[in-house]
Structure formats: C-alpha cells, structure tokens
Amino acid sequence: MQVIRLQQTVEKDREIHLSDLPVLQGQEVEVIVLISPLPEPKKTFTARQLLDSGLIGVWENRTDIKDSLTYAQQLRDQSQAKRYDIFG
C-alpha cells in the first residue's frame, strides 16, 4: 500500500478538499483524518493589567540582586542552556 501525506488548513467548517491525487478510477483508497488541536489563544495584558499583576517590581526588595537587567539575562541564559541539555 502506498501512503500519501497531505497537510492543509481547514478553510470552511466541516470541509476538506483533496485533488490531484495519483489515483485512478476504480482504485480503492482509505482516508484517515488526523485532527490537530486548535492552538490555545494567547493571553495578552493591557499595560494597566500588567501594572496591577504584581509582576512589576517583584525583585525590588531583593538584596541578592544588584542589577536586575543582568540577573534577567542570566535567567534567560540558564533557561537556554537547560533547553539545549535536553537535546545534547
């Protein structure tokens, strides 16, 4: 049995269209539809919501952080290093 994999985005609810397949009249085919989950909508914040969230100034009273920009960069670097360790 030959396998052909096609991926497309559904443009109209409940419809998909297949065309230009290398099949001839009289051939039997089996169609299996694998549906990927819809992506979660990204949550966005307004400036007011961000200010009210408690995230702004969260490091304000930390005595172990001298430079918050440098500290944030170190956290990003550590996160990147951990992500690459998974594949290494």
Describe this structure as you would to a colleague.
The chain has helices at 47-52, 68-87. It has a domain at 47-87. By secondary structure, the chain is mostly helical. The two termini are 37 Å apart. The protein contains two helices and no strands.
Coarse morphology: elongated
Q: What's the alpha carbon Rg, rounded to whole Å? A: 25 Å
The helix content, as a percent range, equals 25-40%
Q: What string gives the helices and strands in order?
A: HH
Tell me the β content.
Answer: under 5%
What count of helical segments does DSSP give? 2
Which structural class best describes the helix and strand composition?
A: mainly alpha
Question: What is the count of β-strands?
Answer: 0
What is the mean pLDDT?
A: 86
Largest sheet: none
pLDDT < 50 runs, ≥5 residues: none
- Termini separation: 37 Å
Explain briefly what this protein structure is:
With 88 residues, the protein is an all-alpha fold. It has helices at residues 47-52, 68-87. Helices cover 30% and strands 0% of the residues.
